[in-house]
Amino acid sequence: MNKNGINNLRDKYQNKTEKELEEEIGFYFISGQKYLNDKNMINMIEDEHI
Hints:
Layout: H1 3-13, H2 18-25, E1 27-30, E2 33-36, H3 38-48
Antiparallel strand pairs: 1-2
């Protein structure tokens, strides 16, 4: 990703709360680690088995 793309992403997300980020991008931010939420995990598993 180029520098402008990274800056655009930062601008898009920097003012959101942690909860808004979780809802929007489907990750929980726990102890600095990212965990896929259950819905995304189920979708990924189903996609792999089709």
